[in-house]
Amino acid sequence: MSRYAAGQLSASRRAADLRRLRGERFDVLVIGGGVTGVGAALDAASRGLKVALVEARDYAAGTSSRSSKLIHGGLRYLEQLEFGLVHEALTERGLLATRLAPHLVRPVPILVPLPSGAGPRALPGRAFRRAYYGLGVAAYDAFAGAFGGGRGMPLHRHLSREGARRIFPSLRADAIGGAIRYYDGQMDDARLVVNLARTAASLGAAVVTSARAVALVRQAREVTGVRVRDMEAPAGSPDAEFEVRARTVVAATGVWTDDMSRMLGDVGLRPSFRVRASKGVHLVVPRSAITGDAGLILRTATSVLFVLPWGGHWIIGTTDTDWQLDRAHPAASASDIDYLLDQVNTVLDRPLTTADIEGVYAGLRPLLSGEAESTSKLSREHAVIEPMLGLLLVAGGKYTTYRVMAQDVVDRAARRLGGARPSRTADLPLLGADGYAAMWRDRADLARRHGMPGGVVEHLLERYGTLTTHLLALIQADPLLATPLAGAPEYLAAEVAYAAHAEGALHLDDVLTRRTRISFETPHRGSESAEQAAEIMGKVLGWDATVRAREVEHYLARVEAERQSQRMPDDATADAARMGAPDVRGFAADRGIDLTPPPEARLLPG
Question: Model pTM?
Answer without folding.
Answer: 0.92
